Amino acid sequence: MSSTASERRLLLAVDAPSLLHRNHHARLGTELRDRGGRPAWALHGMLRQILEVVDRFAPDAVVFGLDDRRRSVREERYPAYKAGRAPKDAALVEQLERAGALIDALGLHSLTPPGLEADDVNASAAAWAVRSDWDCVLVTSDRDSFAHISDHTRVLRLIDGGVEASPLLDPRRLRTMYGVAAENYLAFAALRGDPSDNLPGVPGIGERTAPLLLEHLGSMAAVWADIDHCGGANLVAALDSWCEEAGVARIGRRVLSRLAAPEARERYEFNVSMMAGRTDLDLGLSPDVPGSPGLLPLDADRVARVVGHLGVPATTDLALRVLTEPPASAGR
User: Fold this and answer.
1) E-assigned strands of the chain?
2) With 70 as the cut, is the pLDDT of residue 5 above it?
3) What is the pLDDT of residues 231-271, one digit of tens each?
4) Which of 296, 283, 305 lies closest to 324, judged by CA?
5) Measured torsion, CA atoms of residues 5, 7, 9, 11, in degrees rounded to the nearest 10
6) Residue 115 · residue 132 · CB < 8 Å
7) What would the DSSP string read from start to end of 1-54?
8) For residue 82, what is the DSSP state?
9) Residue 84: its pLDDT value, please?
């Protein structure tokens, strides 16, 4: 028997690389270094933001996803994956390499899945929450995790303005923003494409047309089935009916011709396979074993020592308050 949302425990899953990249560029001018003299502005910025998120949501457990920086199964399959991105600054690379050790030293929990990315950890965290009857908040600065939004999972997208000014997306808000149901966001993204990952979309099907297809046909499985078995007749009728109601020119046959092109379905299915996160990773959480990595509260001496090494007393004070006291659940 599933619990109500107010009764469920909460897992916070953090896309660490996206936050580290963002904080590196935002805080580069501080040139903050830890007590060992090493660059620490991105690490401190990420940690500070997560402490503020923990303070807001009072989670029961926290897991950080990291990218495997040695190997990428997606790049092996598609060498142009993420091509065109600027080379990473050496100071950022160093902090990316040290992030897992910092997280684990605190008593939180990091996961670097072999050949995979933090996005896969987020996908598995969302799936774990459903199986375990927990709630989940995914913390990221990217859109990739929007595909995992559900009745159990929300996404806090950290952008300009800090934690309090960042949008918290649930199924209702996602539909308002993009015009698609949460369960159709992956299909929407695959049709649209993702320039940041160098994944072109289906030619002629962009951010305006994709939601119409998914809204009026229900799913891309229904779209492809209609094209295969009815020549796209239902697709054309549904889109043209909407156009008549909206008082705009008909688009049904134009959209059908683009989706019926030989490369369209191949491009869509390829994008889905590249964008879909792995949902079967072992997160390494033992929520019924007190003191297990990732579970809150943490040991105060450990937190004081590890966060104190960054040399920012105000952040150490915040960490001690939000990480070493029992979760309060009020901000959920």
Assistant:
1) 10-15, 61-65, 109-111, 135-140, 153-157, 168-169, 193-194, 199-200
2) no
3) 999 999 999 999 999 999 999 999 999 999 989 999 999 99
4) 296
5) 10
6) no
7) -PPPTTTS-EEEEEEHHHHHHHHHHHHGGG--B-TTS-B-HHHHHHHHHHHHHH
8) T
9) 80
Q: 110 with 64: CB under 8 angstroms?
A: yes
Structure tokens at 66: 């990291």
End-to-end CA gap in the chain: 21
Structure token pair of residue 224: 């492809």
Cα-flanking dihedrals φ and ψ of residue 212, to 5°?
Answer: -65, -45
- Domains along the chain? 10-178+278-323 (3.40.50.1010), 184-275 (1.10.150.20)
Greatest CA span in the chain, whole angstroms? 68
Q: Contact, 111 vs 65, CB < 8 A?
A: yes
From 86-90, 187-191, 303-307, the region with the lowest mean pLDDT: 86-90
- Cα(19)–Cα(158) distance, integer angstroms: 8
Is the CA virtual torsion 95, 101, 105, 106 positive or negative?
A: positive
| The two structure tokens encoding residue 42 | 């991105």
Burial class (CB in 10 A: 0-12, 13-18, 19+), 31: exposed
> By the 8 A CB rule, do 63 and 14 touch?
yes
Q: How many CA atoms lie within 13 A of 307 on its CB side?
A: 29
**Residues facing 33 on adjacent strands:** 39
What's the burial of 278, exposed, middle or buried (CB within 10 Å: 0-12/13-18/19+)? middle
> d(Cα 330, Cα 332) in Å, to the nearest integer?
6
Give tens-digit pLDDT for 124-179: 999 999 999 999 999 999 999 999 999 999 999 998 778 888 999 999 999 999 99
Question: For residues 35 and 168, what is the distance between their CA atoms, to the nearest angstrom?
Answer: 35
Q: Are strands 10-15 and 135-140 parallel, antiparallel or unpaired?
A: parallel
SS3 274: helix
- The distance from CA 239 to its chain's CA centroid, rounded to whole angstroms, is 31
The whole-number pLDDT of residue 161 equals 73
